[in-house]
Amino acid sequence: MPMNDSVKAKMASGLVYSFAERMGAQLVSFLVSIVLARILMPDEYGCVAIVTVLIAICDVFVTQGLGTALIQKKDADDVDFSTVFYANIVFSIVLYFILFISASFIARFYSYPILDSVIRVMGIKIILSSINSIQNAFISKRMMFKKFFYATLIGTIISAFVGIGMAYNGFGVWALVGQYLTNSAIDTVMLVLLVRWIPQKAFSWVSFKSLFSYGWKILAAGVIDEIYKELRTLMIGKVYSTTDLAYFNKGSSFPNLLMSNVNTAINTVMFPVMANAEREQIKGIMKRTLKTSTFLVFPMMVGLALVSENLVRFLLTEKWIECVPYLQVYCAVYAMYPIITLNKDVIKAIGRSGTYLRMEILKKLIFVIILISFVQYGTIWVAYSMFVSIFIETIINAYPTGKYIHYSWLEQLKDVFPTLVNSFIMGGIVYVVGMIGLNSGVELVLQVSVGSMTYLSICLFTKSPQLKYMYDFIRCHVLARVKT
Q: How big is the CA angle at 177 (ends 173 and 178), to the nearest 5 degrees?
């Protein structure tokens, strides 16, 4: 069944504001990261990276599970939202207390004394997340993504001034901590003011049990996924050094910057859209979204991998050049994220949380074995293990999608293959341009310009339907909103 006008309107409105929110926030964050990377040392980044991982794992308990259940439940009311709000507050306080008393042990484990204080301060983020997770669910449920745009952008800009100001005044690692917490605090305050949702003085055990019966499986899968995802960071920080960890994380940050602008924006919108769509519509929604997201992500990842050395030298200086190999591997990893996340969203949207959990357990058992096999050979092999794992994940995730909505892995591969070929052709041209031997800044601009024009020319020559779709989308929805 094709998408009706109502679904298309929801997707268009949501994508415009979600993409604008991602672009604005990521652009500011990108500029700030360049300034901070020039002022601070890799070792300081490595310290914060360890703490960020621990908080990200705790955050899963208050941002996934019950929040996802609220979005998935078609008739969620104020009692449901209030129940989840109070439950999340309790969870967050318990988690912060555990993290607080564990801080000294973690600092000794990594032989890095300052971690003790950093963990206890940055851990406040967990309590903030418990508050804004309900606002996020409320906005997603009602497709009010315009509010995300304002809240995120304001928080990002204010935290940028805080981080850069502290770094210039010699606060070192605390500049990163200040930026991190300020961003979360402002974002939370802005969402509370913009959404204006106030919890009722009500907690329903019936509601909690109903939501928890679906949400606990998503929560368990999220915890497993987050622990596995961050296991590399924790292992590198322990087995190698915080400097090695900084190069590893900085290498992943560039492709993540580009990928998240497209993939995260689309993913944020697609789950609530598919959760509220009829089963017959979901395949069409996913098919169109997959083609569009890979049309943008594939060429960006191929191009970024080929300009990476010039990019790092020009923006971050020579002291960060060792992050280039990690950057290139992660370009290949993140290129597959649109396929992975869309398949996951389909499984959650149709209510198959049990299937979702079993898949995550199976995948993570396989992936941990791969990681343990690779980690002994050096940090770059840890990145290689991620690529192997992510490729396997695309196949596993697609199995339930093929079963429930009849969109198999082979059909998905067939849909994205033309874009992949076009991206590699463009990449060949960019590689040749990079052999000229000019100044890194000049060569970078030349590579980006030639690459962009080449990809556009290929799409025009082959009459790419994705290019036409993007043009029509921008003309009908983006430009129309700008005019109004």
A: 115
CB atoms within 10 A of CB 111: 9
Percentage helix, strand, coil for the chain under 3-state DSSP, each rounded to 5:
85, 0, 15
**CB of 45 closer than 8 Å to CB of 112:** no
Residue among 265, 262, 264, 258 nearest 311 (CA): 258
Torsion sign (Cα): 64, 65, 66, 72? positive
The residue to which tokens 């960006």 are assigned: 300
Cβ neighbours for 418, distance < 8 A, ≥ 6 positions apart: 462, 464
Spatial CB neighbours of 415, under 8 Å, sequence gap ≥ 6: 287, 290, 291
Sign of the torsion formed by the C-alpha atoms of 90, 140, 268 and 258: negative
Q: Judge contact between 455 and 422, C-beta under 8 A.
A: yes
DSSP state of 476: I
Give per-residue pLDDT as tens, 246-300: 888 888 888 887 776 666 666 666 666 776 777 778 888 888 888 988 998 999 9
Cα–Cα–Cα angle for 58, 227, 335, nearest 5°?
Answer: 115
Give the SS3 label for residue 298.
helix
Contact 443, 434 (CB under 8 A): yes
The residues near 478 (Cβ < 8 Å, ≥ 6 apart) are 16
Cβ within 8 Å of residue 312, ≥6 positions away: 320, 321, 323, 324, 327
- Residues 419-429 pLDDT 10s: 999 999 999 99
Domain limits of the chain? 1-15+265-484, 40-239
